Amino acid sequence: MGCCTGRCSLICLCALQLISALERQIFDFLGFQWAPILGNFLHIIVVILGLFGTIQYRPRYIMVYTVWTALWITWNVFIICFYLEVGGLSKDTDLMTFNISVHRSWWREHGPGCIRRVLPPSAHGMMDDYTYVSVTGCVVDFQYLEVIHSAVQILLSLVGFVYACYVISISMEEEDTFDFIGGLDTHSYYQDHVELKPVKPVEISNDIDSEMRLLNLT
Q: Which residues cross the membrane (predicted)?
């Protein structure tokens, strides 16, 4: 009963993680954040693997999901430190884009209440095709929105880690109990030690032949 409850809870939690990861992946694609895009892609694959392992009762897949969950928590803690500029990190660097482009978070210009204006450069010596983007009126700054997204991922991952460990422990206990009471080992042992006795052919008596001869003589 406990294993069924834990499995159902883990299935629901994996579904929530998939929805949240897909939502985050969409906005990271819009902002060309290549490092989070790669992390989200791996996270989606492992969550699907964990969901399959939970449904099909494959503890090894759940173990992979458990290990990845710990790594995913670490990655999201790093993202929080990055946007809050903890430990010398700066949110204005191109770390999240692998230094390929100068794009920033999509929420920087499209957050709730943000008014985006494209202004031509006023400084001398700048190329004519360069423009400035002015963003004003944001209800919540983009870095806090990114922090909220990472915090949600951490919360879901922590709960998923606990449930995954619980399901693994319950499944291992059930396997040990099944082996103790006999299970498949006893059945295979019985099959291996069954002695197959050859079937002896039935000897047909010669009385029938003698009777037939008597009838012919008469």
A: 34-55, 62-86, 147-168
On the question of pLDDT at 74 being above 70, the answer is yes
Q: What is the mean pLDDT of residues 140-150?
A: 95
More confident residue, 179 or 100: 100
Q: State the pLDDT at residue 119.
A: 74
Torsion angle of the four alpha carbons 200, 201, 207, 213, in this order, in degrees rounded to the nearest 10: -160
Q: Which one-letter amino acid corresponds to residue 32? A: F
Alpha-helix runs per DSSP H in the chain: 2-30, 34-55, 59-83, 107-110, 142-180, 183-192, 207-217
Residues 6, 170 contacting (CB under 8 angstroms): yes
Grouping H, G, I as helix, E, B as strand and the rest as coil, residue 205 is coil
Measured between alpha carbons, how far is 107 from 98 in angstroms, rounded to an integer?
Answer: 19
Alpha-carbon distance of 163 to 8, in angstroms, equals: 10
State the Cα angle at 167 between 163 and 172, rounded to 5°: 150
Whole-prediction pTM:
0.74
Instruction: Please list the residues that pair with 118 across neighbouring strands.
Output: 133
| Residue 126, amino acid | M
| pLDDT band of 19, cuts 50, 70, 90 | very high
